[in-house]
């Protein structure tokens, strides 16, 4: 069986979703008790924004590293010719697509949550500008990773289409080859009648 290489990635997705629930981001439903626990207690630690921002950046980085690490197997439509333990199945590719889209959407929701909380109870203009710059950086980072995924998926889809097109063309030349081989075999092996004819003339 092929090794399930999506386990680590799916664990990262779960981590982000769990973190977002703690931040009060709705994931598959409304906010729960975690939101009350985090946002209704005060005061919030001074480094809370920075630590949460670093977490989001870290998760986006995990997605980027995962996509780059498995890029070759992911876009290779002909990976069935590889060893059994080295290939990536189409099921795994589909799972990566599903998880990546959830991952990117969840990170985007976390950024929006950070943006909504960034300037609350902050009076220093310098701190506000710094946090705005941090949020812009995180959004740009996520966009670049989303673009990386989109490009890889486009390559994968194109190769799958090309593979299907080639598979439809394969039977035609192989049929012609078999017909050609059959014709050559007939020309090189005369019929039994022509082989027996001289014998009949010698012994009437």
From TrEMBL:
Matching Pfam families: Syntaxin-18_N
The protein depicted here goes by the name Syntaxin 18
Please name the InterPro entries in this protein's record. Answer: Syntaxin-18_N
Report residue spans for region: Disordered: 29-50, 166-204
Membrane-topology annotation of the record = Single-pass type IV membrane protein
Composition bias (Polar residues) maps to: 182-191
| Ranges of Basic and acidic residues composition bias in the record | 33-50, 166-181, 192-204
Which GO BP annotation is one of this protein's?
A: retrograde vesicle-mediated transport, Golgi to endoplasmic reticulum
Q: Where is the SNARE-complex protein Syntaxin-18 N-terminal domain?
A: 4-96
Places the protein is found: Membrane
Q: Name the UniProt key words of this record, in alphabetical order.
A: Coiled coil, Membrane, Protein transport, Transmembrane, Transmembrane helix, Transport
Q: Which residues form a coiled coil?
A: none
Can the keyword Transport be found in this entry's annotation? yes
Q: Write down the PANTHER family for this protein, in alphabetical order.
A: SYNTAXIN-18 (PTHR15959:SF0)
Cellular component terms (Gene Ontology): endoplasmic reticulum; SNARE complex
GO molecular function: any one? protein domain specific binding
The record's similarity note reads: Belongs to the syntaxin family.
């Amino acid at each position: 069986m092929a090794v399930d290489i999506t386990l680590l990635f799916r664990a990262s997705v779960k981590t982000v979703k769990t973190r977002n629930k703690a931040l009060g981001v709705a994931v598959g439903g409304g906010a729960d008790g975690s939101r009350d626990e985090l946002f209704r207690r005060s005061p919030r630690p001074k480094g809370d924004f920075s630590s949460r921002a670093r977490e989001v950046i870290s998760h986006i980085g995990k997605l980027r590293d995962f996509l780059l690490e498995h890029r070759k197997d992911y876009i290779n439509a002909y990976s069935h010719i590889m060893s059994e333990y080295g290939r990536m199945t189409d099921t795994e590719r589909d799972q990566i697509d599903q998880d990546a889209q959830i991952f990117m959407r969840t990170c985007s929701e976390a950024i929006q949550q950070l943006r909504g909380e960034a300037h609350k109870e902050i009076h220093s203009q310098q701190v506000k500008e710094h946090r705005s710059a941090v949020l812009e950086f995180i959004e740009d980072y996520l966009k670049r990773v989303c673009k990386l995924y989109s490009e890889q998926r486009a390559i994968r889809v194109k190769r799958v289409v090309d593979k299907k097109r080639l598979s439809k063309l394969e039977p035609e030349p192989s049929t012609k080859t078999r017909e050609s081989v059959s014709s050559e075999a007939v020309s090189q092996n005369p019929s039994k009648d022509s082989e027996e004819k001289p014998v009949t003339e010698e012994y009437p």
